[in-house]
């Protein structure tokens, strides 16, 4: 794995400032579980339109998981106060096994636990991890991971924000390591992975994407036993502006070439995978068209968020190989 020490040195220098592994555990919160059978999506994925959103989420499979990133625009008390909006958002989250959420913007810390309770109301078993409120102004945001706990568990002591003493990032990434839960009789080593959840500032997006190369190199060296490091979130740039990341060999966005915003005009959201180390990536990824999937109008979809969920599929067991590359993969990802 390429190491850009000149870009990463300042991250390594402040490695001890990670919000304490886990003094931060006192700040991270786990959502309640309603033990029951997980919701199973019956949607299918279309591979015929590589540059446009798919109307359906990926089909559920016992051999793969579906990871998504979703900026739920200004997610707070106001949105949770609208029954139709919150029910539709919950339905979207149920389509995936883990969702990295950006832009939780509420002082009221009951917003996310109440939302996860709603997601679980139909018998799912999601839990959540939520980070600190971050930002340079009074308008703070939080990152979160919402995950299906019957399939996935966090790795203890691996959830943290990287503290940025030089203030190069408006909202420091929220890092978390997860692994598949092993089940009796299942062969193979359970897939484990580290996610770097990021929301760049739109006014400084290209600069902050440049800093993410250092973040990536730091995270890969912080837990060297974990080779599957995935950056995901609202990066506020299109794929052509990800060069600080894509200059790292075989590190690529799987969002394809099409728009990820709800208006269908811009590409902001990405899942960035190393296609040499993360052989678990199946080559299937897409952008979920909320209006088409929920059978609502474009304006109703905008009431949910100005971003669409972006997803990628991964195998549930570790894949080993010295010269293999995750396949199939092209710049125009199968959608």
UniProtKB/TrEMBL annotation:
<feature type="domain" description="Endonuclease/exonuclease/phosphatase">
    <location>
        <begin position="68"/>
        <end position="307"/>
    </location>
</feature>
<comment type="similarity">
    <text>Belongs to the DNase I family.</text>
</comment>
<dbReference type="InterPro" id="IPR016202">
    <property type="entry name" value="DNase_I"/>
</dbReference>
<dbReference type="GO" id="GO:0004519">
    <property type="term" value="F:endonuclease activity"/>
</dbReference>
<dbReference type="Pfam" id="PF03372">
    <property type="entry name" value="Exo_endo_phos"/>
</dbReference>
<keyword id="KW-1133">Transmembrane helix</keyword>
<feature type="region of interest" description="Disordered">
    <location>
        <begin position="41"/>
        <end position="61"/>
    </location>
</feature>
<dbReference type="GO" id="GO:0004527">
    <property type="term" value="F:exonuclease activity"/>
</dbReference>
<dbReference type="GO" id="GO:0004536">
    <property type="term" value="F:DNA nuclease activity"/>
</dbReference>
<dbReference type="InterPro" id="IPR036691">
    <property type="entry name" value="Endo/exonu/phosph_ase_sf"/>
</dbReference>
<keyword id="KW-0472">Membrane</keyword>
<dbReference type="GO" id="GO:0006308">
    <property type="term" value="P:DNA catabolic process"/>
</dbReference>
<keyword id="KW-0255">Endonuclease</keyword>
<feature type="compositionally biased region" description="Polar residues">
    <location>
        <begin position="41"/>
        <end position="58"/>
    </location>
</feature>
<keyword id="KW-0269">Exonuclease</keyword>
<keyword id="KW-0540">Nuclease</keyword>
<keyword id="KW-0812">Transmembrane</keyword>
<feature type="transmembrane region" description="Helical">
    <location>
        <begin position="7"/>
        <end position="26"/>
    </location>
</feature>
<keyword id="KW-0378">Hydrolase</keyword>
<protein>
    <submittedName>
        <fullName>Endonuclease/Exonuclease/phosphatase family protein</fullName>
    </submittedName>
</protein>
<dbReference type="InterPro" id="IPR005135">
    <property type="entry name" value="Endo/exonuclease/phosphatase"/>
</dbReference>
